[in-house]
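Onboarding guide, step 5: your first structure request.
Type a short instruction followed by the sequence, for example:

Predict the 3D structure of this protein.
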Amino acid sequence: MNFKSLPQLLDYFKDEATCIKYYENIRWQGNPICPHCGAEKPYKTTRGYKCSNNKCFKKFTVKVGTIFQSSKIPMRIWFASIFLATTHKKGISSVQLALNLGITQKTAWFVLHRIREMLKDKAPKMLKKSGTKEIDETYIGGREHNKHFKKKRSDKNANLTNEGKPFIPKKAVLGIIERKGKVILKHVANADLANVKAFVKKNLRKGTTIYSDYAPVYNHLKNRYKHDRILHAQQMYVKGDVHTNTIENFWSVLKRGLYGTYHQVSHKHLHRYLDEFTARFNTRNLSSHDKFVKFLKENECRLSYKILTS
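The system replies with structure tokens like these:
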């Protein structure tokens, strides 16, 4: 079955049994494995399975150890949520998802955060040395001159707003993008030299070709990498093959999604939204169906409401 649209997906997953059978085939390929101890060939029960290992002997279903565990939401709603969250280029808000699927906004918010946990890269690897990379930083948050007077930073105390509440600065995000390849993002406290050096060293191999603007935090790149820069201050944006237009285009999509779809994102959850946008961008060449299957296969992760809201 090739799901090209949401109606096709919902027409196929008409009941819970169909969803369970489909997901068992995705996760186990016909060979159930106990998620508690890893034992194979469990006993079949009326509601799932029972481990054949005498030291374990626990009951389980295909949902255990995944984002579906302990959820009372029907699987077809989960599948529809995953399909929508991974096919909308700029994401879908919890309010819109609730309206589309007939669930509460609170439930939709939790569902989307669990999906973001699923989309997170579980085994990040360094980018290949071949190919050209671009590096840049961006800042998430409203512009100061657009804020109401009481929301602006106080002239008397830089740590407070004019209404006396703590001032929250913009959120810094570092990004490395591979032309015609992947993007890697990280939310950092400050886009300073220490954070940039650690971020680059973790994701790039020595000798990689990388381009940036003239920000001083990138001066050190010439020591380990084939580094060149473009001077935006003089309205120069392309110098032969040297430019940062690829990552600038990605920042545009990210910000349009965050501001236009989610409107406001907290420091606490920003990294989850970055995981979402990263996963969608890095699978942009896959069909809607292939993305749906890919992320279901990588679904062995959990995120409880208590951890999410703590």
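Each response can be followed by summary notes, for example: The first strand starts at residue 43 and ends at 44.
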